[in-house]
Each structure stands twice: as C-alpha cells, then as structure tokens.
Amino acid sequence: MSNPIFLALDVPQIDAGKALLQKVKSHIGGVKLGLEFFCAHGHHGVHEIAHVGLPIFLDLKLHDIPNTVAGAMQAIHVLEPAIVTIHAAGGRAMMEDAKAAAAENTKVVAVTMLTSLDERDLARTGVNGSAHDQVMRLAELAHDAGLDGIVCSGQEVKAVHKQWKDGFFVVPGLRPGGKATGDQKRVVTPRQARDDGASVLVIGRPISRAEDPEAAARAIEATL
Ligand SMILES: O=c1ccn([C@@H]2O[C@H](COP(=O)(O)O)[C@@H](O)[C@H]2O)c(=O)[nH]1
Hints:
Layout: E1 5-8, H1 14-24, E2 30-33, H2 35-50, E3 56-62, H3 66-75, E4 83-87, H4 92-101, E5 107-111, H5 119-124, H6 131-144, E6 149-151, H7 157-163, E7 168-171, H8 190-195, E8 200-203, H9 205-208, H10 213-223
Parallel strand pairs: 1-2, 1-8, 2-3, 3-4, 4-5, 5-6, 6-7, 7-8
Helix pairs in contact: 3-4
Bound molecules: the ligand O=c1ccn([C@@H]2O[C@H](COP(=O)(O)O)[C@@H](O)[C@H]2O)c(=O)[nH]1.
C-alpha cells in the first residue's frame, strides 16, 4: 500500500463522513468503517462511502462462536472489504473459520489487545502479565490459525514484526505528539509505527476532530 493511512470514519452521519473524505482523500490510502458507522448505516452506508474510491476496511471486531462469525463473514462478501477485523480472543477455531469464510481478496486480521487498555486493565480481566506478552501470545495464535495479520499498538509492532516477517499489521492508537490522550493508552506517533513495521496506520480524531482536517492529514502524511 503506497499511503498507509486509513482514516477512522467514526461519524454518525453518512453526509458528514463523505464531506470529511472529500477534504482529506488525497492524503490517505483508505477508509476504516467501524462499529459506530456500521451499526448506524449497515451495507447501504458502506456502499455510499465506497463511491469515494478508496479501499474499505471494515473494523467489525467479530467475536462469537465459529459458526456465527463465519456466517457474518459470508454476509459481508458483497461489500468487498480490503480488510476485516475479528477478535483473537475468540480462539483458534473461530479465527480459522472466519478466514475460510472470507472473500479471497479480504485480509482478515485479529485484534490482540485494544489500544485503550493498559496492563492494569488487562489484570482486571484476569490476565496477569505485560501487554507485550499478551500481544505476542495472541499474535502467535492468529498466525497459527492462518490469518493475514493482527491489530496491535505501536508499542508492540516491532516485536511482532520480528517474529512474523510477512504479517500484515494494523496499528491504531496513533497521536502525532506521541502522548496518550483520552481513551487511548498505548500510543506512539504515526512515524514510529511505520518505522517499526506497521502495514496500516489507523488515524481518526487527530484528523476528523482537527480544526482543519485537510491540513492535519497533510501534516501527518508529511511525517511519513
Ligand atoms: O485496538 C484498537 C482497535 C481499533 N481501534 C479503532 O481505531 C480507531 C482509532 O481512532 P482514534 O480517533 O485515532 O483514536 C477507532 O475507530 C477505534 O475503534 C483502536 O483505537 N484500537
């Protein structure tokens, strides 16, 4: 992918999303549609955004029993997504069945540990140990299940890339200043994530909530 930036289009209205895309489309390589957008607008909304002509990343974070996730993957074939997310915590069988059910040209990547979590949050879910170890463990499981790659923070991507040379790595939790803000806890700059092996840089609010989204996207692109 030439421009690795995927804009997280976390907006409640299709028209607002399309207007934002018109402003920034020459500085991004794709669009990420997540739960907020998909729950509000479903297939119709995805078709509308696809008219802009950029690759579509459906960040649905599927997590259920294998049969249900496989059915959901089949139901989105028609949308021709470039990338779809599932949760690695769903287990190996779920990941295998999701990959088998996905369209041939769709990359299936597993969320390891959300970038909004730190080690204290992890411990509260009953998992003791570092974020690094948790990501490495789930990355190995995703690899063994035959997935294309994983979602992790920029703090782990270098280590994962070392173990999984041809993996496809999606990195959200990116802030141009490199400082954790709001709900994102494991944060790096877009440049660091790219240098450490990220395939896709997911960036939302630093662009969408900027006073001038076009200038913000251009400035981030210039750092890469
Ligand atoms: O671990 C994860 C997985 C997915 N996301 C998604 O990425 C964007 C980030 O948006 P920002 O506004 O740049 O924080 C958002 O759509 C999340 O759902 C993530 O942040 N962390």
